[in-house]
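dumping these here so i dont lose them again. two proteins, back to back, each one seq then structure tokens. dont judge the mess
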Amino acid sequence: MTCSMTGFARVEAQLEQGDLVWELRAVNHRFLDAQFKMPEDFRRLEPELRKRLGKKLSRGKVDCGLRFRAAVTTATESGIRSETLHRLLELLRTVRKLHPDATHPDALDILRWPGLLEEPERDITELLAAATDLFEQALTQMQTMRESEGARMHAVILDRCDSIDEAVAAMRQRAPDVKQTIRQRLDDRIAQICAELDPQRLEQEVAILAQKSDIDEELDRLDSHVKEVRDTLAKSKPVGRRLDFLMQELNREANTIGSKSPDTETTRIAVDIKVAIEQMREQVQNIE
């Protein structure tokens, strides 16, 4: 299945110990590049989370952010470090002596002083397990979005393949007229200079010009590359790099046709093919 490298997911869970929120954002990138931002208590999960991410994604730059908002701690669950409080009060008295007009902190300000409250040790085993399960949910959500976007791009590319097939058929249909035009131009040039030319030599000149402007091989390769694009899209594994290579090959053949053909209409059709290829390339650049 064709997958986009772009995706987003946000999942959250409310637990007894607090609220967890995962946000995943993915954009296109040549390789898989994952960045994790999470509270320090959860940092030990990173190796396992990277492993899970790598099983589902092969390319893309992915930002993974975890937020944890702890439940409000009750007074019975926390204690005050007496020594820290006494030192803080002494410092406040010193400040008042030196600066009588200084603003006096209230009780809540004092309680917010770092290290004043003695938090009880928490068993976060269940919390870590919940964060891991929630990450898996976020991955699934993002993958669903990537697959949906990939299906849209899949349809666009197939539509452009159909356009190229039609253009190739039109050029093949026009080929006999192009050869006749080459001969007529050569006849006209000979008539203008009033020169006599051996009919056999004329045929040779026509054959040489026709060979120089022949685009049958390029058309055959276009057919082959378009078929390869369709076959590649049907594969279940990541195909972005292969499709990008095929876009280069398609563009090379279209350029050659445009430069070789002496026919204005054929050149115009070649330009249409290049437009279709560029539209496919825009989609391919975001395919995993």
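---- next one ----
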Amino acid sequence: MMCRTFSLLLWAGLLSAAAMGLGVPETGHGEEADVRLVVRADDMGSSHAANVACIQAHREGIARTVEVMVPCPWFNEAVEMLKENPGLDVGVHLTLTSEWDLCKWGPVTGSPSLADRQGHFYPTTSQRPNFPPGTGFIEAKPNMAEVEKELRAQIEIALEKIANVSHLTCHMGTPTATPELTAIVEKLSREYRLPLDLPGAKPAGGFRGSGTTPEQKEAALVAILENLKPGVWLFVEHPGLDTPEMRAIGHVGYRNVAADRDGVTKAFTSDKVKEVIRERGIKLASYADICGKRED
């Protein structure tokens, strides 16, 4: 009951914050001399905490694009939240792996070559030495016809349920991990007119590891923003919340998921970060701003 009450209160707070206009003003397109920054919030749909945090990072912060994982257990909630935020740009985060130990998902098509004996995606793209044997997607020799069927289904479900889908991205890089896989994704990108790349964008940097504190993440992001040159820049991270649900999520080598991703949310909604953006005139943009919106 406490968790449900907390979620309802937090969700109400996000709606109130948006109504008061606490976020950085929308900016959209800019001239060649402008600094344009696309802040992308990944893994919406993977947990309730991720859903709430991604919306918070948009409403109260600097995220203008979110990536949604169709096969995940909280996808339906993500759909409802996105209906309430029609201006938020959405990417289909093509998913072929299920990395967490205790929270799992599998193919929406039931394709057996993509799943383990429990029907879940494999945890890693390739077998990692510190993971149990038989946990690598590539080593499982997936059937390429089933890969295409699965990724096509994920795209079509997203297009059916979400209005502002503008592009594709790849969870953990798995869908483009080999030339054969890349060819499938590029084919689907052309067919559905959903770009896979952000033209001309350069990586803005990162938080230097999951062990950094919220204060260190904020300082790192401020430093990145202060040094951006004119052009298009991309900053990708995973907002979350330090809740009991997210504290139960993790895998070998990454157990502090809740604390790490809560720090991401704090940095994305930081007053210091938003002040640097205002002072420098940085234009926050989305994938749709750079690539154009998909026309049916």
